[in-house]
Amino acid sequence: MTGSIRLGVNIDHVATLRNARGGGHPDPFTVAKACVAAGADGITIHLREDRRHIRDADAEVICRWAAKPVNFEMAATEEMAAIATRLKPHGACIVPERRAEVTTEGGLNVVQQREALKPVIRRLRDAGIIVSLFIDPEPDQVRAAAEIGAQVVELHTGAYAHGKPGELERLRQAAVLTTQVGLECHAGHGLTFANVQPVAALPEIRELNIGHFLIGEALLIGLPAAIAEMKRLMREAREG
Questions:
Q1: What are the phi and psi torsion angles at 170 (to 5°)?
Q2: CA distances (Å), 37 to each of 42, 141, 144, in order?
Q3: CA dihedral (177, 181, 182, 186) positive or negative
Q4: What SS3 class is residue 21?
Q5: Where are the beta strands (DSSP E) in the chain?
Q6: What is the pLDDT of residue 1?
Q7: Is 59 a residue whose pLDDT tops 60?
Q8: In degrees rounded to 5, what are phi and psi of residue 149?
Q9: Residue 114 has pLDDT above 90, yes or no
Q10: Strands 70-74 and 91-94, how do they pair?
Q11: Active-site residue numbers?
Q12: Distance between terminal CA atoms of the chain?
């Protein structure tokens, strides 16, 4: 297979660990720099409404640093649009957000929310931010994302990661459609050493965003080793 594939590392749960104790350690910015030194192609952070992990100060320093592209995950709210347009990360990925959820549980319903999403997308793009929508691998959602001005879609791989039958084929078809409608295709959620290769092998996918697994694995083998192994598996899948 041809074409390179990037690895974005989500460092939200470094902040989760810090916040559990209070104080400033471990510092997400320090870990972001370590991820890049270990080979990460970008850093993903999700500034949630309730600030349960990443906080405003984290977002400020990480976006200002920008040694590698920063992917700023956000809800489609006035508050988050204002923060994003001020910080000007490389990209903003609009995700659904519910206070009660432990982690993002599914993709945006772009079909139903298109009128609410349009002005947010326009505002972000006017600020020079590349806009991504986090969606389930459904044709209607892909088409709607293109119609309302997104530049990228990130396909939700959660159902695939949980072993739902037929999900890899759904991801493949959605990835093909994404490129056909002129959008860049990313993917992520629940990816591990054990399941990443079939997704990484899909030639249309340009980037995988992986967080919780890598931060957890780093406790066992170290962060540089975890990132290096994920990059190796992705590269092997792409070249196989």
A1: -60, -40
A2: 11, 36, 37
A3: negative
A4: helix
A5: 6-10, 42-46, 70-74, 91-94, 130-135, 152-156, 184-188, 205-210
A6: 41
A7: yes
A8: 105, 5
A9: yes
A10: parallel
A11: 46, 73, 189
A12: 6
Query: 188: closest CA among 199, 179, 198, 180?
Result: 199
Distance CA 140, CA 85 (A): 28
Confidence band (pLDDT; 50, 70, 90) for 32?
A: very high
The two three-digit tokens of residue 39, written as one number: 């080979």
- Answer yes or no: are the C-beta atoms of 110 and 144 closer than 8 Å: yes
- For tokens 């196989």, the residue is 240
Supply angle C-alpha 38, 221, 226, rounded to 5. 40
pLDDT tens digits for 161-190?
999 999 999 999 999 999 999 999 999 999
The tokens describing 47, both together, are 């500034």
Neighbours of 25 (CB within 10 A): 10
Q: Tens of pLDDT along 88-110? A: 999 999 999 865 555 556 899 99
Q: How many CB atoms lie within 10 A of CB 54?
A: 25
Separation of CA 2 from chain center? 22
